[in-house]
Amino acid sequence: MQDINRTIxxxxxxxxxxxxxxxxxxxxxxxxxxxxxxxxxLAALERWPETGIPDNPGAWLMATAKHRAIDHARRGKMxxxxxxxxxxxxxxxxxxxxxxxxxxxxxxxxxxxxxxVFIACHPVLPTESRVALTLRLxxxxxxxxxxxxxxxxxATIAQRIVRAKRTLAEARVPFEVPRGRALEARxxxxxxxxxxxxxxxxxxxxxxxWIRPALxxxxxxxGRIVGGLLPNEAEVLGLVALMEIQASRxxxxxGPAGEPILLLDQNRARWDHVLIRHAxxxxxxxxxxxxxxxxxxxxxEIAACHARARTAGDTDWERMAALxxxxxxxxxxxxxxxxxxxxxxxAFGPAAGLEIADELRYEKSLERYHLLPAVRGDLLAKLxxxxxAQAEFKRAASLTQNVRERELLLERAAASGRPPDxxxxxx
Length: 427
What we know:
By secondary structure, the protein is an all-alpha fold. The protein has 20 helices and two strands. It has three domains: 1-109; 111-230, no CATH class; 240-310, no CATH class. α1 (2-27) packs across α6 (112-120), α10 runs antiparallel to α11 (213-229) and α19 (386-399) packs antiparallel against α20 (403-414).
């Protein structure tokens, strides 16, 4: 039973975005679409343990959701909307609403997922609601996972999602990709959402697995689609390059048993060097546009410092520290500052990095952020302060919600009395 439930969860992660997007195209109501998709998920939880996993679980979920939608039409909850959308065709063919509804689900729907992104990122919503809703609908993330990504209470995220769906329904937001200036105005929010989805795949905030490659793939797919729409936007290219460089390490980030392998310990022969070359070419294209580096472009340049180094010892840490300085000026945040502490430590010594990290201990938003004590533990160990390092690693382990990461941190706590490793935590 537990194995089947894990499989159902994995299928949901992969298929939910397409399922909700297709239903949103039909119903023009994000909230209703998600309810129908959740109904299909509940049906899977009830039936699959008895019947087994279908050969095509995504198709099974879509068919089940379609039947739920038809039931809604039969009960009259969608009749008005269905009459308006399909009236002319229905009159000509003398179809019932539920028959027309079923046929419309089989249309060539194009990229409904991208349309769903732009609905969730519509300007009628506050920025934080756009991000939370899209992570929920596109990434299939739980409210708790989104809350951890934002370092805010889960109740806050739940309220944002409920209000966002209500607002979209009341505003009757069209299910379409915007054009012209409207498209450009919404790209920044879309890029933020895509990157947050990628990050959840790259380092899962909870669960038994450290990485979720399917989320990374979906984020890169969406990023490339947006890049095709806006080929001359340097920040779009920067985000695509950044995600591709990060994704190139996925195979090397976990060991045979799924255990995390930190960046400086990775076998670089296992990196996807074809993907790296493509990413670096994309970054060069962004550079040739002549625009100043934005937040994603700077992060891509930072990632490129790792990608260009044949060995960990070849990494240009001084350039990386300079890039983090620029990023902290452009987009200051406690998390950026923590990453800057790591780069400064590698470039100029652990004492310099610890000085930056120590200042973040009083940052309220990082009180429950496990990477702060993890980084401090690394730096303290390199300075020979092993008792303090062990305490920090244990605190980090108590804060993370990811099983694999907790195991790694506890191992580092146990090893903190031995000679320090080659560098601070980087993955």
